[in-house]
């Protein structure tokens, strides 16, 4: 299987697919493999006479299209999760503006509460 995967990776690289040697590469490899299959189905169906298309071939093309659609949907969901995590880690840096006047007022309120609670 490793030799087969290496051959597929080399073929995908030759076709311009963004392939790397890590876990993401596996997902990319699968995605590009499905896209390649979908393109082959599209080309075959475009050249065939609609009356001569076998139902099994049409069913396989529809299944491949659904797989690609689901993969794209999953990719977008994961990308949104990563973007949200990046924003959470950064603490909203660059995403909004820091209101220094409101921060100064809040610090003043908290100091006043501490002074009242401390009796001084």
Description:
- The chain has four helices and no strands.
- Helix 2 packs antiparallel against helix 3.
- The model has no long low-confidence stretch (mean pLDDT 78).
- 2% of the residues are buried.
- With 120 residues, it is an all-alpha fold.
- The chain is 78% helix and 0% strand.
Annotation, overall tally of beta strands: 0
- How much strand content do the residues show? under 5%
The shape is elongated
Helix-strand category: mainly alpha
The poorly predicted ranges are none
Mean pLDDT: 78
Radius of gyration: 27 Å
How far is it from the N-terminal to the C-terminal residue, by CA? 76 Å
Helix content: over 70%
The H-and-E topology, N to C, reads as HHHH
Number of distinct helices: 4
Largest sheet: none
């Amino acid at each position: 299987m490793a030799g087969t995967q290496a051959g597929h990776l080399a073929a995908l690289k030759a076709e311009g697919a963004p392939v790397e040697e890590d876990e993401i590469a596996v997902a990319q490899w699968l995605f590009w493999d499905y896209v390649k299959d979908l393109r082959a189905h599209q080309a075959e169906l475009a050249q065939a006479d609609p009356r001569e298309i076998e139902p099994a071939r049409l069913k396989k093309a529809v299944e491949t299209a659904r797989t690609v659609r689901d993969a794209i949907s999953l990719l977008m969901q994961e990308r949104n999760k990563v973007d949200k995590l990046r924003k959470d880690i950064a603490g909203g840096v660059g995403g909004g503006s820091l209101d220094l006047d409101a921060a100064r007022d809040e610090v003043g309120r908290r100091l006043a509460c501490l002074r009242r609670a401390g009796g001084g």
